Fold each of these.
Amino acid sequence: MLHHIPARRFFLAPLLTLAALWTLMPASGSAASALVGRPAPDFTLRSLASENLRLSEHLGEVVIINFWASWCGPCRQEMPQLDQLYDKYRLAGLALLSINLDEDVERAAEMARALKVSYPVLLDERKEVSRSYQVGAMPLTVLVDREGVVRYVAESYKPGYEKRYAEQLRELLNE
C-alpha cells in the first residue's frame, strides 16, 4: 500500500537541502568575483610591524589576500583557520597578506595579538586597496596564483570554507 506524501513536503525537502548547501558556498556573483582570471591589483601597505609590503614582491608564490576588520565576527572565526593554512603551506610557497580595514590601528593590533596570527597584518588606512579589490562584504579572501592572477574569491566566512581554500591552495601550489 502506498502512503500519500503531501506535495509540499516532496518539494520542500530538496529545496531545504539546496538552501543549506548554498549557505556553505562562497559568493560568486559579487563585484569582487569579477577579479577572477585578472591580474591582482598591486599594492604596497604598511604592516603592524612598520614595514612596507608589496604584493608584486610575491610573484612566484601563491598568495592569500584576506580583508578583515576587528568588528567582523566571521573575520574572527576565519583568521585562526588561515593561520593554520599559512603554517602548513608556507614552506611550499604560500604567502598570506592580511589587510585590516579598521579606522583604529590599535584595535587591529589587539585582535591580531589575541588570535596569535603569525602572518603579516597590513593596514589599508585610506581604503584604496579595498576599493581596488571591490570589497563589499567581510571577510574577503582572494587567492592569487604564482603569476599574480586572481584565481578564487570568497566573501564572508562559514566553517568549512577553509577546506575549499586548502583544495585551491594545493592545486595552485602544484602548478
Amino acid sequence: MQDSGAASPDSGKWRARWIRVKLLSADWTALFWFSCRLTLGIQAFGLAAIAVGIFIFCALGQTSLGVGNIFLLLLSLETMFFILLSMGLLPREKEGRTLELLLVCARGRHELLLHKFLPICLFVAAVALGLTSGFRWLVGGFSWPRMLCVPYALAATAGILTVVLTTYFRNQYGAGAVALLIAIVVATLWLDPLRTFYGFEAGPTIGRARPHVTTNRVILAIVFVFLYDHAVRRLKHVELWMK
C-alpha cells in the first residue's frame, strides 16, 4: 500500500504558496483601498454630482445633441476629471504625511503608480460608462463602444501627463494648469480629436485627407506608454520630487 504521507510535501508546498498569495492579495487590497480613500475622497462625490447635473441639464435642455457635441462634452468632462484628480496625487501624499508610508509599502515604482493612478482610472471609467450609456439612451445614433473608449483614452493620456508634471512642479495647481493648457493647445491648434480619433466627419471633407483613425489610436497608445514609463522613471529618483 502506498504511503499517503508521500504526498504531504507537495501539498504542504501548495498550501504555503496559497497562504503567500492570500497574504499578498490582502496586503495589496488594503493598500489599494487606502489609496482610493486618499486619492478620491469626498471630491469624487462632488465630481459625480457634477456629471449627473450636466446630463440632467442636457436632457432637460430640449436641444438636439449631435454626435460631435456629445463626443466633445464627454472628452472635456473626462479630461477635467482626470486632471483634477491626478494633479494632487503626490502633493496630497506630502501634505498628509503619508508619502513615506506609501514608499515603504510599495515594492516598486510601478506598484506605487498603479496604486495611485488606478483608482482615478476606475472612477472616471464608471462616470464615462454612466454618461455614455445615458446619452446613448437619450439620443442614440452613435457607436457606443467608440464613444465610450475614445474620449476615455484621450482623457487618461491627459491624466498620466498630469502625474508626470506633478514630479516637476511643487504646486499641484501649477501642474494641473499646465496639463490643462497643454491639452487645450494640442486639441485646438494641432489635433481634431473628433475626426482624428473617433472617425466622425463633423463637416465638409473636400480638400481634407481622410484621417488614419487606427494609426492615430496606435500613436496615442504609444504616447500613453511613454508618459507612463517617464512617470515611473521620475518616481525612481526620489530626491527630484521629494523637495
